[in-house]
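TICKET: design request
STATUS: open
ATTACHED STRUCTURE:
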């Protein structure tokens, strides 16, 4: 008897296996709870000194950018205010001190020249121009003094000493403690 030929087509895929649904009651999946946020981790003494030092040295950014020093110190304050009262105190001092001396010095020079310009219309201002020329370099030294004072603060912080800006430090400490 002749052999029976296979009727299967070569390379034809086999029948697909359909999974059977589970038998029994279906239990709903447990809801996944998002992880709870961790409280901010406190800084160690070395990290506190480093960030306090950087807050005071942010005054050097004003030499390059003209105004980024207070912004950098404010960012340090906002990031570390909940993690370290020491860093918050040093950074907030630096922000306020830089705003007063850098922008205050520029404001004084601008106001002085505005007054001289306005009085020049009635001839009195022309007499004041030499005085304004003499006072401008003196007022321009205010930011330089602030720069030196900020570096002195950074040095004291790096040595582990507490630093308090004159007239600003006591006010900032009272603001942070609520006293």
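STATUS: resolved
RESOLUTION: sequence designed for all positions
ATTACHED SEQUENCE:
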């Amino acid at each position: 008897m002749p052999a029976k030929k296979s009727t299967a087509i070569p390379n034809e895929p086999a029948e697909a296996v359909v999974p059977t649904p589970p038998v029994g009651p279906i239990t709903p999946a447990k809801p996944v709870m998002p992880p709870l946020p961790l409280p901010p981790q406190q800084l160690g003494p070395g990290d506190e000194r480093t960030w306090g030092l950087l807050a005071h040295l942010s005054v050097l950014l004003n030499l390059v950018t003209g105004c980024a020093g207070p912004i950098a110190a404010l960012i340090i304050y906002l990031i570390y205010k909940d993690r370290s009262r020491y860093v918050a105190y040093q950074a907030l001092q630096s922000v306020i001190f830089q705003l007063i001396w850098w922008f205050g010095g520029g404001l004084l020079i601008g106001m002085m020249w505005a007054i001289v310009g306005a009085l020049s219309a009635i001839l009195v201002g022309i007499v004041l121009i030499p005085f304004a020329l003499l006072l401008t370099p003196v007022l321009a030294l205010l930011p330089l003094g602030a720069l030196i004072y900020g570096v002195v603060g950074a040095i004291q912080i790096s040595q582990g000493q507490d630093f308090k800006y004159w007239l600003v430090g006591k006010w900032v400490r009272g603001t942070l403690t609520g006293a």
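CLOSING REMARK: The mean pLDDT is 78. The helical segments are 45-57, 61-65, 68-80, 85-119, 124-158, 169-177.
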